[in-house]
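Example record for the data management plan.
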Amino acid sequence: MNSAFQKIRSAVMKLEGGFIKNLGRVYGVYTLGFLGFVILMAILEQAGVSAEKIGWMFVGFTIAIYALIGILSRTMESGQYYVAGREVPAVYNGMATAADWMSGASFIAMAGGIYMNGYPYMAFLVGWTGGYVLVASLIAPYLRKFGCYTVPDFIGTRYGGNLARFCAVIVLVMASFTYVTAQINGTGTVAARMLDIPFEWGVWVGLSGILACSMLGGMRAVTWTQVAQYIVLIVAYLLPVFWMSNKLGYGLIPHIAQFDAVLAVQELEVLHNLGAAVDPAAQKAAGGLKALSVGINDASDTLMAKWKFFTLVLCMMLGTASLPHVLMRYFTTASVKAARQSVGWSLVFICLLYLTAPALATFTKLSLLDPNLATGIIGKSFADAQSLEWVQKWTSAGFLKLVDGNGDGILQLQEFFMNGQIVVLATPEIAGLPYVISGLVAAGGLAAAMSTADGLLLAIANALSHDLYYKIIDPKADSGKRLVVARILLLAIGAAGAYVAAQKLTGILGAVAWAFCFANSGLFFPLVLGIWWKRANRAGAIAGMIGGLTAGTAYLYAIRWGGMDPWLGIDHLRFGMIGMPVSLILMIVVSKATEAPDEETMKMVDSIRIPKGEVVQNS
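Corresponding structural encoding:
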């Protein structure tokens, strides 16, 4: 076994010089191999192999492939470990960024949010996508020109002094750790269902795969693993939607057909008496799960609804432009021009999934509501619904519950309770598709959560090892010692994230929204003003980071646990609307009230804005 691995390793090393030039061929073979594996699983299903075994093979095969890429990409060179040698082509960096970005929230929870709460939840999609416009126009190319390894590296050098760097590390850790718990939550959800194990065990199974991808090769391993993961997740997300659209008679283009399907859902909701109140006893018996009683067309036209939509979009946009693990991806490109192109490719690859999420939510809901379909269970016998295998399995996993609140033996819309984050994973079973599609979707969800978790864990470990340990604690540490520290930190942070995720403190979307608000409260204005306002200085940046993060966090605590009512509809998903203004005001006022940056710093800022030329610094 070891000799076979060494032969593979040797072949990869020989290819290293031409690896970048042969990326199309390498990933083309990989894609064909993956599709061949899916076909093999379909054949095994038809041959009578059990669903549990197929689930184990999907999870095991994909994790093994990602781990193999991670191990083959191991390195002890700091440039390769931190920024993949700055040689990743724009198209492939776009794919890696899309995988890094389309987390468990995008793949697993986004369609579920729309499904359970209606189209107002599309504010997440608008905000996340719009954030990349800010990344492309205001931040990414200029950070690439700067030549840093991490976001705190830019903050520390731009503003000077260890305190500014340390504050940036604190914001990065808070935002990224909150985000990574959501991704490990996603891997736990997939593993619990596919491997038929408790969720609390599933998070540790997912973590083992995550660490195998990133621990030895850093950004180099994560980059090439994320490209492979994007291929899996996009195939897994699109195939069921196109299949459902065609199966339900709406044509081959679900993105257009969904509008007719929405009208059908509206009519069925009226038929099933959408307005009926949920029985309090049934709600209590459901154990906190949400009733399937909010229409997918639910979109209030009130001023408050518009304000809440706008504020959520704004928080997600500015959070996107502040997230360190996203910005890190653009440090890996060969040039400033490639960084800008990479953002464009990222949007292309991301939109393939985002434009499909509403269609998936619509067709899934239609499959449940339509009494003329074999899959339609609302309005039918309660006993028949409970006898369905997929209902039993998701119920036993704690994500679904049917409660006959009025005792009439008929499953009403208000008696179907579920966790929205299982919608995508359960869609193939709800729609009556072959089980192999369920395995494929689970593999896609696992790829999405793992890819983002890899990037987040790497962002935290790199910031702590490079910016805290190397830049502040031990500036004389050699490259090998720094990478050992980074790997130890990666392991420790991953274990802490798995432990927190197992506590189920909040849902996937909730944790992601918190991460975005932590990031925009503390980092957005120090980053943007650091590039575009030469007068911004160290004191202003420190005041902005500390003040914004403190104000946002204090507001979150007050409304979430302190009993305070939200101000103007700014709930726990939007606390960045408190932190960001505080950060901006403090940064401007304190910068104006204190000494301006020196001439060298101002020249450095001018140099960052020029697309051509040498990088400002080499970390």
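Summary line stored alongside the record: The beta strands are 290-291, 400-402, 416-418.
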